[in-house]
C-alpha cells in the first residue's frame, strides 16, 4: 500500500472512520475496480420486482441502495475535485434520505443503475489516477469538516464495502 494514500488523523470527520478502516492497507484502485464486478455478480439474474423490495418496512430497496451508493460516490468525487482544484468555500452536506426519496430509483431499470455505478467508478478511478501526489494531500471543508482528497479516495470504496455487507446480511 502506498503510504501517500492513507489519510492522517484530522483529514476527515470521525464518522468516516467506519469506511476508511475497511480499506486501510488495500490497493484502492484495484479495489474500486473489483467492486464493479462484485456489484454486478450480486445482482446477476435478479428480477426488477425483487430489486425494488427492501428487507424491512421503511428501509431502502435494493435499487434505492444502489442509487444511494451512486449519488454518494458522485458527491464524494465532486468534493475531491473541488478540494484538488483549491476550492476555498465549504462544500455542502448531503441529506441521503432526501436524495433517495427524490431519486425515483425504483422506477429505473436495474441495468441502468448498475451501468451508472460502473461508469461513475470509471470516472472516479481516472480522476484519482490523474492527481499529483501533492494534490492527494490537499484539504478543504466539506460537510463542516476538514477533508482531504486522499480521505475521500478511501471513503468511496469503504462506503461501498459497508453497503455490500448490509446487502449480504439483510437482503
Automatic annotation (TrEMBL):
InterPro entries tied to this protein: DinB-like (IPR024775), DinB/YfiT-like (IPR034660)
Organism, scientific name: Echinicola pacifica
Protein name per Swiss-Prot or TrEMBL: DinB-like domain-containing protein
Ranges for domain DinB-like: 37-166
Domain of life: Bacteria
Amino acid at each position: 500500500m502506498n503510504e501517500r494514500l492513507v489519510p492522517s488523523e484530522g483529514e476527515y470527520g470521525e464518522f468516516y472512520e467506519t469506511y476508511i478502516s475497511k480499506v486501510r492497507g488495500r490497493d484502492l484502485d484495484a479495489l474500486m475496480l473489483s467492486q464493479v464486478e462484485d456489484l454486478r455478480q450480486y445482482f446477476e439474474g435478479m428480477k426488477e420486482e425483487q430489486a425494488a423490495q427492501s428487507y424491512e418496512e421503511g428501509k431502502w430497496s435494493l435499487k434505492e441502495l444502489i442509487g444511494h451508493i451512486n449519488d454518494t460516490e458522485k458527491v464524494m468525487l465532486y468534493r475531491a475535485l473541488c478540494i484538488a482544484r483549491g476550492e476555498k468555500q465549504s462544500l455542502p452536506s448531503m441529506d441521503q434520505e432526501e436524495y433517495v426519496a427524490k431519486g425515483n430509483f425504483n422506477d429505473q431499470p436495474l441495468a441502468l443503475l448498475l451501468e451508472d455505478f460502473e461508469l461513475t467508478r470509471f470516472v472516479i478511478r481516472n480522476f484519482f489516477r490523474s492527481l499529483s501526489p501533492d494534490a492527494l494531500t490537499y484539504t478543504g471543508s466539506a460537510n463542516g469538516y476538514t477533508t482531504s482528497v486522499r480521505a475521500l479516495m478511501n471513503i468511496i470504496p469503504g462506503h461501498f464495502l459497508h453497503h455490500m455487507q448490509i446487502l449480504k446480511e439483510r437482503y
